[in-house]
Specification:
The protein has 15 helices and eleven strands. By secondary structure, the protein is α/β, with parallel strands linked by helices. It has a six-stranded mixed β-sheet with strand order 8-7-6-9-11-10, sandwiched between helices.
Length: about 375
């Protein structure tokens, strides 16, 4: 016999369900909602150089920052600049298109705090002001042309976390597309546990050689108007690969005659070089035999002069065709790797070292560190 539901059972069940639902609703209404933690403010830095347009969007995270979005595009803005003194139409068109992409990313992430700068190509071109005015009109982005000194200072700041505690003499080198910056810093008067934060603080002010006790002293700095693109152009008519490389290297060294550490050449104890550029990170990737670039393995890698020299000799042995096919070099860099390597060889020849720290960072990172440090949201531990 099929069991029957007692009379009124459905009504009782419905009342029970309704009561439980109302009780849950009252409990939910009384319980305070936990506010979602606010994400730190986003910052952006854009570097428009002779060869490329690059941007980072990041948020502060403890003593460093976390990259939220990035952009990098080879625009070759400086093409033809050496002969005409002007920015050419086609490179400007490529650059404007890259800037439109950057603008879209900034709007997508609702970035309010940013620093957008242009460097060597715009410093040298007679029509750079007109071009940047056009860029602002067409993309809404306002770029400032910064001095070579500020560019060098920000490159130094970006490398602060790589400064070793024991370092007393520091050479920071930044090989760009249109220029190369060298900064020699004496840290011997700075307590070892304060050296990184002292370097970070160099985003303020200028390269003053008369510093207070306990502060880094800039012995000298120089901006050589030769980078991977401009140096290559000087010797484009030399057909022999090895001869062109040697000429580029010695020609670059000749430009250092006014640099104090070059004039007063001496051996330094507790000496460190920090190198920031695509040339140096490519050499590091080749040294590690990376078939696919991995920033986590390259940034902070320490090499010595002999290891750098061995990689560059391998580049020469490969020749133009071999370099183009080498995955560690990459097709975007193979045409300019030897001019950058010529600069690096000259520097290693003058100041051989057991400690060259490879920095996959540069002006963009320096711009971010400077903004965050100014706002008091970032500090480095020793």
């Amino acid at each position: 016999m099929t069991p029957e539901r007692p009379a009124g059972a459905d009504a009782t069940l419905n009342r029970t369900k309704a009561a439980a639902k109302n009780a849950a609703a009252r409990k939910s209404a009384k319980a305070p909602r936990r506010p979602r933690p606010r994400q730190p403010q986003l910052y952006a830095a854009l570097d428009l150089g002779t060869n490329s347009c690059r941007m980072l969007i990041a948020r502060p995270s403890g003593g460093h920052f976390e990259v939220v979005d990035s952009f990098s595009k080879t625009v070759e803005l400086g093409t033809g600049l050496k002969s005409s003194g002007m920015l050419s139409w086609q490179p400007m068109q490529r650059t404007l298109q890259a800037l439109r992409i950057c603008r879209a990313k900034l709007e997508r992430h609702d970035v309010a705090r940013m620093r957008l700068v242009a460097t060597e190509a715009c410093r040298r071109a007679r029509n750079s002001r007109e071009f940047l005015h056009r860029a602002q009109s067409e993309t809404g982005l306002r770029l400032d042309i910064i001095t070579a000194e500020e560019e060098a200072r920000l490159a130094v700041v970006s490398c602060a976390s790589l400064v070793a505690r024991e370092t007393e003499q520091l050479l920071v080198i930044d090989i760009g597309g249109g220029s190369t910056e060298l900064v020699w810093i004496d840290l011997s008067r700075v307590p070892a546990d304060q050296r990184r934060n002292a370097i970070m603080g160099m985003h303020r002010g200028s390269f003053n050689r008369d510093t207070l006790p306990g502060q880094p002293q800039v012995v000298d700095w120089i901006s050589v108007p030769l980078g991977v693109a401009t140096l290559k152009d000087y010797f484009a008519d030399v057909e022999d690969d090895a001869a062109r490389f040697a000429l580029m290297s010695w020609y670059f060294e000749e430009q250092l005659e006014a640099f104090t550490p070059y004039i007063n050449l001496k051996h330094h104890e507790k000496f460190q070089i920090i190198g920031t550029s695509g040339t140096i990170t490519t050499v590091a990737a080749s040294y590690l035999r990376l078939k696919r670039y991995d920033r986590s393995k390259v940034d902070g890698l320490v090499m010595n002069s002999a290891q750098v020299d061995k990689v560059i000799r391998q580049y020469l042995a490969l020749g133009p065709v071999g370099r183009r096919q080498d995955p560690s070099i990459g097709r975007d860099r193979h045409t300019q790797i030897m001019s950058g390597a010529a600069i690096l060889t000259a520097l290693m020849r003058i100041w051989p070292t057991e400690r060259m720290s490879v920095a996959d960072r540069g002006l963009r990172e320096g711009l971010l560190y400077a903004q965050m440090s100014h706002d008091g949201v970032l500090s480095l531990k020793a």
